[in-house]
From TrEMBL, chains A, B:
This is Histidinol dehydrogenase. The gene is hisD. Its EC number is 1.1.1.23. It comes from Nitrosomonas mobilis. One of its GO terms (molecular function) is zinc ion binding. GO terms for cellular component: cytosol.
Amino acid sequence: MVNIRQLSTADAGFEQSLADLLAVESAQDDEVTQVVHQILDNIKSRGDSALMEYTRQFDRLELTRIDQIEISPEQVQTALQAIDSEALAALEFAATRIRQYHEKQVAISWQHTEADGTMLGQKITPLARVGLYVPGGKAAYPSSVLMNAIPAKVAGVKELVMVTPTPGGYCNPLVLAAAAISEVDRIFTIGGAQAIGALAYGTTTIPRVDKIVGPGNAYVAAAKRQVFGTVGIDMIAGPSEILVICDGQTDPDWIAMDLFSQAEHDEQAQSILLCPDATFLERVAASIANLIETMPRHEVIRTSLQNRGALIHVRDLQEACTIANQIAPEHLELSVENPEQWIASIEHAGAIFLGRHTCEALGDYCAGPNHVLPTSGTARFSSPLGVYDFQKRTSLIQVSSEGAAQLGRIAATLARGEGLEAHARSASYRYEQ
Amino acid sequence: MVNIRQLSTADAGFEQSLADLLAVESAQDDEVTQVVHQILDNIKSRGDSALMEYTRQFDRLELTRIDQIEISPEQVQTALQAIDSEALAALEFAATRIRQYHEKQVAISWQHTEADGTMLGQKITPLARVGLYVPGGKAAYPSSVLMNAIPAKVAGVKELVMVTPTPGGYCNPLVLAAAAISEVDRIFTIGGAQAIGALAYGTTTIPRVDKIVGPGNAYVAAAKRQVFGTVGIDMIAGPSEILVICDGQTDPDWIAMDLFSQAEHDEQAQSILLCPDATFLERVAASIANLIETMPRHEVIRTSLQNRGALIHVRDLQEACTIANQIAPEHLELSVENPEQWIASIEHAGAIFLGRHTCEALGDYCAGPNHVLPTSGTARFSSPLGVYDFQKRTSLIQVSSEGAAQLGRIAATLARGEGLEAHARSASYRYEQ
């Protein structure tokens, strides 16, 4: 049995039930914040020696020389040769599709010249050096390496520096293979807040980067938050979630498994199904009960579904879309007939998976779009990780002497209105002489 | 006399001198952080009543009803009619140019269908509701309203909510005029951390927004940092800076005034000149000495130039570009012959002002590009404020049954490699049946 919450939009108090369901404990732990603050300070002031101490302590690594934290290209090649050929082919296939999709996101510089010779434009430049955090141990996901590294390389980032903790010296060879396939430039076996500090401030061994991306635990997240501004960071991810909208015509086992696929990540993951067909919701509940024991991670799935999952009866698919917009889900499956008709109704979602054959797992690995998506309703204001996260813009302004005569007068008027006389004078010099 | 620092790249220790010059005290004040944390907590838990208390306390406003904090459209119209017609015309002219430039930044949704019927795409949606913070009192800049509001409206943001403190009840009519011209939807006379909290969490009176942009003091900056994640925020700005590269052929008075125009903002602002002609540097120093007493804000300018300014002798213009890339300046003037030849050499800058007639002030007000630019070297990884800050992306994935047969196998292989059996099963259902 799985006691998954069953709700209906017709229930009195549905709005509150939904709000409670979506609430995430996002409070930052003060103790974590303090510990991280101290680690960052130490890395900033003592560099490599602090980095070695923390790595010995937290990752139980017997380091005698600092250069032992770098994985050599030879070690990467050894890992590549050791892994299963089917796995390697699958990684390469996925990498190709991810690359092809992201190539469509590349922004191009432009310039426009006006009649009087004034030119305005926007110059696009890749970030020079980027740090990629990859969690170690069991949660080391090669797919995550591809999804973070490939957009950076498509953007033109020259130096992509990966860090990954190797507790007790273990490093997942698939992670190294994914790094090789996605052209990561350097790999260091460091992790935690100390790795984030090393990337943000630079040490003798670790080059200072311009931006840090990639998932991590609470310490890594707190460290990223604290170095934000010194370097760029991607979003700080909350628990992963899926919202499935189904018209009741998909195989209920498929839908149950899609809900499982999110729930198996961790106990905080969230799986919600919206359907206008009450009978179908019962069938999915039966599939869940029927299938859960066959899953290796059934304990995690059960806890996640019971704590944070829900099967919700809606009036119709239009209402389902309204609720989807309230939730602004990370992943939205439209497992319905003619799914494309609903695209216009969805304003907020990280990714939309259209049609019965498009389960989230295809997008997680190999469809092409990024699997790093805004969680916890942040799709209201943020986007999937993309090439645009690794490119930046510079405004170009070249005012002709004729243009300066016109723009200078306007600027001088506005500057004087703001009490900024040097601005006004700087502008008026350009047309008075 | 102005004791502005004179350096040369030929000096021993130049690198360290430059690093010292650029160092910004960016440490977050722990006391400010704590005070702001408490204000945000109070706004979150007590909403409007806390908001009224803080506004009475900090802005000395005699509020008896909460709806007194909203400025009515009639009040805005009254302000519009009261202001000088030349100032109004200048604001409208600037708004038109800003709008035209930003319209070139609008991103467009796309979809691409593959041979087997699989469709991938990217849907662009504007943010639904955005908060715009506008500082009150003397630093209330109408140009800043235009620069923040217009890109949001060009992006298609439906509801743009402006907040601005009105200490003692004073509100700059030019700020209201700028809000009207740039189609701000609602205006509230609140400020400080309490205004940021109200926008981030929503109160009965203040609608919850999806993103908050705009400059503010240390409390506002700390509040934005703390609500980041609950809502989106723009960059947290440091002191403003200008780097001028001159070949020695521009009128030294022009260059001196360009340096003043940055220095007059505040004592922390930074103005640096790079030039290969030592004689010209002397002439600029003479212009500075000669002109400073004519400036209303000469005390601020003097302090800023003495504390943070520099005239730097370089070997040649190529070296000047190298230094510019190290600095990654907010504003870069290329006051040289054929400035366009150097565009390719500049990798990191917020905006480049090309040619002797293009002083920064033209870009600050009316050239068209945004004046909200990355400060303190953050141009290494961030961009001018733009339409892209008010649009977000949603990935679209529609896999055909044929596509699922191929992608499903790859996904299942990769998922099993990561120990995620529900992902694998969810994918394999799509091709096994």
